[in-house]
Design a protein that fits this description.
Elements: H1 2-16, E1 29-32, E2 38-40, E3 50-53, E4 59-65, E5 69-74, E6 84-89, E7 93-96, E8 109-111, E9 117-120, E10 129-133, E11 138-147, E12 150-157, E13 160-165, H2 198-230, H3 243-253
Antiparallel strand pairs: 1-4, 1-7, 2-3, 4-5, 5-6, 8-11, 9-10, 11-12, 12-13
Helix pairs in contact: 1-2
């Protein structure tokens, strides 16, 4: 019983210890390290399946793997954007095992700059028109595509995904990802001015000290409980007995003295007369 109780106490104490952040799941990522990396609807090399070209230096989360393609997800369901799924060629991206720095992909907007702008189902004015947009309207930008020397943007407005010609929209303002590409020089950090705010400099140390103190406060009671459970209990010493009582008890326990034998009185001749 003591063994199970000890295990239960130690498990409870361990559950209360602060845990350092860690990755819950192992996720595969790929990085767009080449120009003109294309995002496909299906895992084929057909031009009809090309949706748009991705922004270089950014990352995509891998969902599954095909023979020559990775199935990936793009964007998050936030700020008007919707997560979409597609494929990239394995030869166009670089695998990455560690979780990249945010943002994974630029979530930017472009504005309609022309009147009577129309959104199309493909990168051609001969394709099906889907809807018209007004001047100054903001569109969610996903990527771009150049067809016949004409640049198109793949965008979303409302529930509609479509293409708009670059002549009717502003160019997306996208900076490279904060993590330098392989082979690129890391920019030298600017000299940091001494910080006079002691609270900011001492905050990491104080946080670490608090974690150490919490661990000690949790472990000490656990050790004490385990020691108490497993130390054998000592038997109480017998109470001292006074000497007179001991003598009386000993005397009472002595066997009774044997009765004295009567010696036969010698008989003389005169006794028989």
């Amino acid at each position: 019983m003591k063994k199970y109780l000890c295990i239960l106490i130690l498990a409870l104490c361990a559950s209360l210890l602060p845990v350092s952040p860690a990755l819950a799941d192992t996720v595969s990522w790929v990085r767009i390290t080449q120009d003109n990396t294309r995002f496909y609807r299906n895992p084929t090399n057909m031009d009809a399946d090309i949706m748009f070209e991705l922004e270089k230096s950014y990352y995509l989360k891998v969902v599954s793997e095909q023979s020559y393609f990775y199935q990936v997800e793009l964007m998050d369901n936030d700020n008007g954007f919707v997560k979409i799924y597609g494929y990239v060629k394995k030869t166009d991206v670089t695998p990455c095992d560690t979780v990249p720095e945010l943002p994974l992909y630029p979530a930017v907007y472009i504005s309609v700059t022309g009147s009577n702008a129309i959104l199309y189902s493909a990168c051609s004015t001969a394709s099906q028109p889907l809807c018209s947009v007004f001047y100054g309207q903001q569109l969610n930008y996903y990527g771009s595509m150049t067809v016949a020397n004409s640049k198109w943007y793949f965008v979303k407005t409302g529930e509609t995904f479509a293409y708009i010609n670059s002549a009717y929209a502003s160019a997306p303002l996208i900076n490279p990802h904060p993590t330098p590409l392989p082979g690129e020089e890391t920019p030298e950090p600017e000299p940091v001015q001494p910080n006079t705010d002691s609270e900011q400099t001492e905050q990491p140390s104080q946080s670490f000290d608090m974690q150490i103190a919490l661990i000690i406060l949790i472990c000490i009671p656990a050790v004490i409980i385990v020691v108490i459970l497993f130390i054998p209990t000592r038997s109480k010493p017998k109470s001292a007995v006074s000497e007179p009582y001991r003598n009386e008890t000993a005397a009472a326990n002595l066997p009774a003295p044997a009765p004295k034998e009567k010696k036969a009185r010698p008989r003389y001749f005169d006794d028989y007369l």
